[in-house]
Amino acid sequence: MKKLVVLTGAGMSAESGISIFRDSGGLWEQYKIEDVCTPDAWIRNPQLVLDFYNARRAQLENVKPNAGHSGLSDLEQDFDVHIITQNVDNLHERAGSTKVLHLHGELTKACNENKSIVKEIAYEPIKMGDKIGNTQARPYIVWFGEDVPAMGEAIDIVEQADAFVVIGTSLNVYPAAGLLNFVKQDVPIYLIDPHENNARRDAHFIKNTAVDGVKVLKDLLQYKK
Are the C-beta atoms of residues 48 and 35 closer than 8 Å to each other? Predict the structure, then answer.
């Protein structure tokens, strides 16, 4: 069975109602990155950081996977599908995908200060005074300026791909964007993006949102199977 590796970003979940940070009206317009998504922000104002992620976690409980998520899950019938996601939501898993690697953490988990202890919290808030180990519980999120521990595993997966798909990411956020460099030369690349994306001129560009783009992708992959 051919290995299909899919890298997903915020655009994957946009049609489920989850804000895309960098778009007009996205969360970055309401919050400064340095105030909620960095280790320094956590030191300066942990309550604000907790409030930000608690709100996102509460929102996540009330949204559903979209047809794009379900379409990727359906592909497991014909391909060995591995999803590498920059998203911290759990919509891929809820849609039925069985092999999902989160590069930037997971909203439904909390951890101790150095991430050595991780706890499932579902959609519950994290409060000041909540402890994991001997430290204040924090969101299990890879903040800007922190290492991405899953990158090594992601690179190994990408190097084994028989086809590589990028959905809903501008490929401007590193190190995740650098995964393109580990796709073998003869492996087909598909980019699904409603906006112009010249990250790889040799890629098959599908100018659609995730929902419509995955429909097109499924037709292309079935033809080439």
Answer: yes
- Whether the Cβ atoms of residue 86 and residue 104 lie closer than 8 Å to each other: yes
Q: Which helix (H) or strand (E) is 111 found in, with range?
A: strand 105-111
Residue with tokens 């989160």: 102
Please tell me which residue in 102, 104, 195, 204 is annotated as part of the active site: 104
- State the CB neighbour count (10 A cutoff) for residue 223: 7
Question: 9-25 burial by CB neighbour count: b if 16+ within 10 A, else e?
Answer: bbbbbbbbebbbeeeee
If the chain, 225 residues long, is cut into consecutive pieces of 10 residues, what is the mean pLDDT of each piece?
96 87 51 88 97 94 97 97 97 98 97 97 98 97 94 98 93 80 94 80 90 96 72
How distant, in Å, are the alpha carbons of 33, 103, 165 from that of 188?
A: 35, 23, 8
Instruction: Give the residue carrying structure tokens 């090594």.
Output: 152
69 is catalytic: no
Nearest CA to 190 out of 8, 1, 2 is that of 8
* Sequence-separated (6 or more) residues with CB below 8 Å from residue 18: 10, 59, 60, 63, 87, 89, 91
Q: What is the pTM of this model?
A: 0.92
Residues in the chain: 225
C-alpha–C-alpha distance, residues 185 and 191, integer Å:
16
Longest dimension (CA), the chain: 55
